[in-house]
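CORE FACILITY INTAKE
Project code: CF-77B
Contact: R.S. (postdoc)
Sample description: multi-component assembly, two entities in total
Requested service: structural model of the whole complex
Turnaround: standard
Below are the sequence entries exactly as provided by the requester. Do not edit them.
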Amino acid sequence: MTDTPKRRSDSLTPADDSPSQPEKRARFEDVLANNATLKDDSAFISKSFCPENMHLVSVLSSDSRSNCLILHTRFEDSPDKDGIVILKKTPFPTDPKVLQQSKLVHKLLTSSDHSAESEVSLEPSNPTVTTFPCWEAKSILSNDVYHRLLVTAGLESLNEVDMTVIHPAEPHHFKRYTKSGRHVIQETPELYSSVIVPFLSKTPRDLSWVDNILTGKAERDRVLFTTDQIDDYGFTLVLDYRWNEKRIQEMHCLGIAHDPHLTCLRDLRSTHIPMLKRILVEGRRILSHKYSADAPTPGPIREDQIMAYFHYPPTFYRLHVHFIHVDAADDGGTRTGRAHLLDEVIRNLELDGSYYADRVLTIYLHDQSPMLEAVQQSYANSTSERIDSENVRSEDSAS
Amino acid sequence: MTDTPKRRSDSLTPADDSPSQPEKRARFEDVLANNATLKDDSAFISKSFCPENMHLVSVLSSDSRSNCLILHTRFEDSPDKDGIVILKKTPFPTDPKVLQQSKLVHKLLTSSDHSAESEVSLEPSNPTVTTFPCWEAKSILSNDVYHRLLVTAGLESLNEVDMTVIHPAEPHHFKRYTKSGRHVIQETPELYSSVIVPFLSKTPRDLSWVDNILTGKAERDRVLFTTDQIDDYGFTLVLDYRWNEKRIQEMHCLGIAHDPHLTCLRDLRSTHIPMLKRILVEGRRILSHKYSADAPTPGPIREDQIMAYFHYPPTFYRLHVHFIHVDAADDGGTRTGRAHLLDEVIRNLELDGSYYADRVLTIYLHDQSPMLEAVQQSYANSTSERIDSENVRSEDSAS
């Protein structure tokens, strides 16, 4: 019924294959969640990968913003095998009760409390709640009402670290987890037709998982809306497989166009404006209605809190619109140049029906991306052709 | 010589006043760095703000991606005063030597090492380096080569927490640190001329800090390039005050147009294309030259690693282009709809000289933003006008 494994292995990700992409993370979570068997030798695993046994070859990448560190390692017991270790600091809990249990705060007050009488009473079943661990904090600066400290002990229960070990790690693991840089490329219509389109048809991807959604063969319970299939300008609104419907700020839905000939932004013309307006207006209406204030969690979301955009280049080549919450955490997915607001796309097509056909588009391609390789090869070819023709000219003039 | 304090207090931030904006953070850092006096009563401060003395009123905001938590608190010794506590987990170090000293790994190897002979020798001056703290890690899942663990002890030296206390905290502090939501607004040219422009002229900001940069009165050592002042289409390239030139991925420079009549994207016409191309081409050339492979740190950066964009609405109303590294961490600053790539702006003006004059632009405004208030007031007025005129019509038809 579900085609998630196929989607995971087959979807095309030329635009962004950075390991920090949520999509990649979600896929790896899937591998673990779907297939994993919890082994009993927990103590053995914990011991094998402990710092005392771990040797560092290099730092593969790090992200100071999300507090993540990825290492190339070897372990004492198997010095000829490579490992990848991914460390990530866990987020703070946000439930006041959990913060109290974690010994970050002593009592829970209500906003109007100024006396001890109205404190939330401590759970009698937890008599140790008032025993606080040793607190060590260095005062860095203190100025007027502003005080900065560096806490070095006392918050251990909030400082768990999520650790993933890939061992033994193969070259393809290293490729995925090594920080790769982006290139800003100006994609002319000629580059698109002479390099990108041939590249895509040489490396076709199985998009049957999309058809399965559109025909109701898969993910029926995740489809929120679909127009009459006969209509070429129809679309289907489906929950993105990354979203579990738990937190509205993480909302992610896809509006997939039914017309199989529409692959990406480059295919859009003024004739598609009615379809695009329908996706935008209906998408916002359906989502704000489904996740309204009256509905149970995770809402509410208002229409003016919904961003709708295309990726260019897209992750897979069937025209689809992303719907997310405007207060979503920023990642590469909403970056200007990669994300094109549907509102703006419609206005651009109203201004010029061949805006996206004739247009130079600024795109980002990763070092590791096969698409970048194709683009750079075409640059090299055109340079050598130019040199050849210049040589011919200079030979002509010399003769 | 420097006008940072004035810029800090005067600059207009209608588009994004979220506390997680790097700009806001940098400003607060400035307050501390420029004016703070380190008090000797470090132990007293540390003790006053310890968890045992801290009571929680509410969680003001949290960011699971950047591992930040902001609390409304009161302290045992002053129960009638409010406090704001900002906790942030520190990023992992990335220097292999520091990782070794922090007891995350045992030995440092080179990539070709498969034997103990070629290990980087441990510093003899640090005999305790091989003593590892107690390691506790729970094996969550183990499947094939993938192993996931939750580390609960043993990495204490990597788990410092940065803690900022504002105490006593005033209402304006709460306004700044309370999570505020965004609204997606379609800014028509009429809304711009009838609401935004009057709003801006009613709340003028002192932009003398910009003039000081352009005339060489301030930040001379941070100006990278300036064109002849006589030229109306000139510009000045200056290091953004947030960037300390340490890490090239965090590069942030501003190209400020000399023409004081140019305030923002809305003012651009086809006559400005030569100036815009000059800013784009010269900006990329100068930066990639200054931070080249031959230059000392923090380079290198190639021209095709440089993103150039406008914000709309801008943070201050003098036309300026942001130059950043394409591999910069994503924050709200590069989000589509807020950031407009200079490459695309030039192409849009080439297509239609009044593209940005006649255009509906999708913008984001925060709950707390006075500009949003002005926009919503205008919506309310036009609705009541419409109702009034409808009443007149129905009275007419009834009479």
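Facility notes:
- Residues 199 and 374 of chain B are 7 Å apart (CA to CA).
- The domain at 206-357 of chain B is CATH 3.30.428.10 (HIT family, subunit A).
Invoice: internal transfer
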